[in-house]
Design a protein that fits this description.
293 residues; alpha/beta; Arc Repressor Mutant, subunit A; D-Maltodextrin-Binding Protein, domain 2; five-stranded mixed β-sheet; four-stranded mixed β-sheet; 11 helices; 13 strands; 42% helix
């Protein structure tokens, strides 16, 4: 079983097909197809169900894919650790950050980090927390900022904890209240982020604990657009208090969400037991030094 064969198989799954995977691994579609077939023959089980227009994982394929991601990540860790031992630092920080809160919390650190470590190249990936965790688990980044709780597959370091705020039009009956809970908001439509944002899970899980599923009228990945939709009366939106405080110009009411287990708790996370490069460790050290945690 070759590392390249596992990587090709993982890319077929990740990209959702052979043609896109071929572009990612810089090979022909025929080569990619043969590599997957070779892996299936070697293991003696089909890994992909090729019926229809899209290949899907079989039960055996799910096991092999999960194990392949761990093997590939361990290989990358091994090479990085050996490079540092030999004094050939790669000088790359592969960092994943979510759109929500990063400009306030992390932008000041970038300038300090760049001044302190000018030889380190920062490769930034931006997605919602859930997607970042998938990319981190695959070994494609070293660190990610994600909302707690996270699975036991990750270790973490505190960044910030903030209460959530309900964003309402000024004409809303609750607009002048100092705080509210989800029970008082259940009859109003919700505006959420796009799929993959951890903040959605916090809100939806809290609604289910209250015994209801909210009506979702809009989703977006843009904070300012979500704020404008809420101000215009389309529905109620939710954001960490510190982000709302940075936007005093918004034409909306901001009411603290006094709801158990809905705090926005952000942390830097990494794969449990993974080797952290010099660049990654330096970022974590700087975060502690700057008292973000």
């Amino acid at each position: 079983m070759q590392i390249r064969t596992l990587r090709i198989f993982a890319e077929v799954v990740r990209q959702g097909g052979f043609s896109q995977a071929a572009k990612t691994v810089f090979a022909t579609q025929s080569t990619v197809s043969k590599s997957v077939k070779q892996l299936e023959d070697e293991l003696g089980v089909p890994l992909l169900d090729r019926t229809g227009h899209r290949s899907t994982l079989t039960s055996a394929g799910e096991i092999v894919y999960r194990r392949a991601l761990k093997i590939l990540a361990e290989r990358d860790d091994l090479l990085a650790e050996l490079d540092e031992l030999r004094g050939r630092k790669r000088g790359t920080l592969r960092l994943g950050l979510p759109p929500v809160g990063s400009s306030i919390l992390f932008a000041p650190l970038f300038a300090i980090y760049r001044g302190r470590y000018p030889g380190i190249d920062i490769r930034l990936v931006e997605h919602g927390s859930q997607r970042l965790e998938e990319i981190l688990a695959a070994g494609d980044i070293d660190l990610a900022a994600s909302l707690l709780p996270v699975s036991d597959d990750f270790e973490w370091q505190d960044v910030a904890t903030e209460p959530l705020v309900a964003i309402l039009p000024r004409s809303h009956p609750l607009a002048d209240e100092p705080s509210t809970d989800l029970a008082h908001l259940r009859d109003f439509p919700f505006i959420l982020f796009e799929a993959g944002f951890g903040l959605n899970k916090i809100i939806l899980d809290a609604c289910r604990r209250r015994g209801f599923e909210p009506t979702i009228v809009a989703r977006s990945s843009q904070i300012d657009f979500i704020l404008e939709l809420a101000a215009a009366g389309l529905g109620v939106a939710f954001l960490p208090q510190m982000i709302v405080a940075q936007r005093s110009h918004i034409a909306a009411a901001c009411v603290v969400l006094a709801e158990p287990q809905t705090e926005w708790h952000l942390a830097m996370i990494w794969r449990r037991g993974a080797y952290l490069s010099h660049a990654a460790q330096a970022w974590l050290d700087l975060a502690r030094e700057a008292h973000i945690t």
